[in-house]
User: Which sequence fits this backbone?
C-alpha cells in the first residue's frame, strides 16, 4: 500500500479504538452508577479487613470523581478486545507467518503478566501494606480515610504492579531488536537487583516499605524469567541468520 493509504488506515483504526474506549467508558459509568457492578465496595475489601469504619469524603465531588476514575478503568477493560484487534489488524499484513505465530502468544503473555501484577497488588500487597500503615500508632491516632485518597492509592499501586510485571516482555522485545543479548542481561544481574529496588521505590508509595519489598522480589524473578526468554529469542535469531547465510552460499 502507498504511504498515504497506510496513514488513512491508521486514522480509521485509531478512530475505532477511540470509539470503543468511549463506548466502554459510558457503559462502565452506567454500570457503576446503577450499582449493577459493585466494584467500589469490592475494592474496599482490603481496607475492611483492617478497619470497620466507612470511608469519608470532604468534597461533594469526591464520590463522582471516584466513579469517574473507576469508569475509565472498567471502560478500558471492556474495550480491550477491540483495541487489541485493531492493533493486530493494522500490523498483521506487514508480518511474516513466523512472526504472526510469535506476536499472538506475546500479546497473550503480556496481558497475563499485567493481570498477575494487578492480582498480586490487590490480593497480597495491599492487605499487608494497609494493615501495617493503618495499624501503625493506633494508640495515638484515629484513622479517618478519605474516599479519593484511598482509591488513588489502590489504583496507583495496582497499575504500578501491572506495568512492572511487563518487564520480561520488554526484555524479549529488546533482544528481538538486537539491542541486548542474554549474555549482557546475565552480566547485569547485580545492577538489575539495584534497579528493581529503585523502580519499586519510585512506583510504590514512599512510606510503604512492605510494598517496596513485595514488589522488588517478584520483579527480580521476572528479570530472571526475561533472561530465559531472551535466550530463546536469541537462539532463534542465530539459527535464522545461519540458515539465511547457508541459503546465500
Assistant:
Amino acid at each position: 500500500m502507498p504511504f498515504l493509504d497506510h496513514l488513512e488506515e491508521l486514522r480509521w483504526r485509531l478512530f475505532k479504538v477511540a470509539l470503543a474506549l468511549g463506548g466502554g467508558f459510558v457503559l462502565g459509568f452506567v454500570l457503576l452508577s446503577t450499582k449493577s457492578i459493585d466494584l467500589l465496595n469490592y475494592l474496599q475489601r482490603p481496607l475492611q479487613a483492617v478497619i470497620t469504619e466507612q470511608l469519608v469524603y470532604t468534597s461533594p465531588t469526591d464520590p463522582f470523581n471516584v466513579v469517574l476514575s473507576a469508569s475509565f478503568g472498567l471502560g478500558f477493560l471492556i474495550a480491550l478486545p477491540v483495541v487489541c484487534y485493531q492493533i493486530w489488524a493494522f500490523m498483521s499484513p506487514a508480518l511474516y507467518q513466523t512472526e504472526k505465530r510469535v506476536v499472538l502468544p506475546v500479546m497473550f503473555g503480556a496481558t497475563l503478566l499485567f493481570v498477575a501484577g494487578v492480582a498480586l497488588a490487590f490480593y497480597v500487597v495491599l492487605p499487608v501494606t494497609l494493615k501495617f500503615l493503618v495499624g501503625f500508632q493506633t494508640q495515638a491516632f484515629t484513622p479517618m480515610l478519605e474516599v479519593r485518597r484511598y482509591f488513588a492509592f489502590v489504583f496507583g499501586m495496582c497499575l504500578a504492579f501491572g506495568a512492572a510485571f511487563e518487564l520480561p516482555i520488554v526484555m524479549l522485545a529488546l533482544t528481538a531488536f538486537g539491542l541486548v543479548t542474554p549474555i549482557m542481561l546475565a552480566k547485569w544481574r547485580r545492577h538489575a537487583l539495584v534497579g528493581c529496588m529503585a523502580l519499586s521505590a519510585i512506583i510504590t508509595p514512599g512510606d510503604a516499605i512492605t510494598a517496596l519489598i513485595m514488589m522488588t522480589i517478584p520483579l527480580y524473578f521476572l528479570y530472571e524469567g526475561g533472561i530465559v526468554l531472551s535466550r530463546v529469542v536469541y537462539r532463534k535469531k542465530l539459527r535464522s541468520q545461519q540458515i539465511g547465510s547457508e541459503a546465500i552460499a
